[in-house]
């Protein structure tokens, strides 16, 4: 019988030290250095594991979504921390800050994408 005790997700990075610095200093998350990689503690109690991979290829999809109460404030704060937000030509209703204004167009949450130093896609989003 399959009876898991817990679960977590993971993704690869090309430089563990850069990843550690980004997730702790830039994003302000708690990170434990493990022998095999980084255990990143997420808001709300979850964890994700970042592991080094020599032939790392950045994820072409969003690997982490951070829910926020005020997306404009979150984007402004992260921009001040040096994060550049992605702009995608195929995504409608994306403003000059990089925020896709989904709520105003009944297309889901407001969301803005950025990458970690390994090129993995992350996002901040504001629902309802």
Description:
With 128 residues, the protein is α/β, with parallel strands linked by helices. The protein has one domain (9-126): 2,3-Dihydroxybiphenyl 1,2-Dioxygenase, domain 1. Helices cover 16% and strands 31% of the residues. The protein is built from two helices and eight strands. It has helices at 16-26, 71-80; strands at residues 9-13, 30-33, 38-41, 47-52, 62-67, 99-101, 110-115, 121-126. The strands form two sheets. The chain has a four-stranded mixed β-sheet, covered by helices on one side. The chain has a four-stranded mixed β-sheet with strand order 5-8-7-6. The relative contact order is 0.20. The model has no long low-confidence stretch (mean pLDDT 95).
Topology, number of strands: 8
Architecture, CATH level 2?
Answer: Roll
Mean pLDDT, as a whole number? 95
The CATH topology comes to 2,3-Dihydroxybiphenyl 1,2-Dioxygenase, domain 1
Strand order of the largest sheet: 1-4-3-2
The percentage of residues in β strands lies in: 25-35%
Global Rg: 16 Å
Specify the overall morphology: globular
Reading off the top of the CATH hierarchy, the class is best stated as Alpha Beta
Helix content: 10-25%
The biggest beta sheet is recorded as: 4 strands, mixed
Distance between the first and last residues' Cα:
39 Å
Class computed from helices, strands and strand pairing: alpha/beta
The count of domains is: 1
Count of helical stretches: 2
Uncertain segments are none
Helix and strand element order: EHEEEEHEEE
CATH-defined superfamily: 2,3-Dihydroxybiphenyl 1,2-Dioxygenase, domain 1
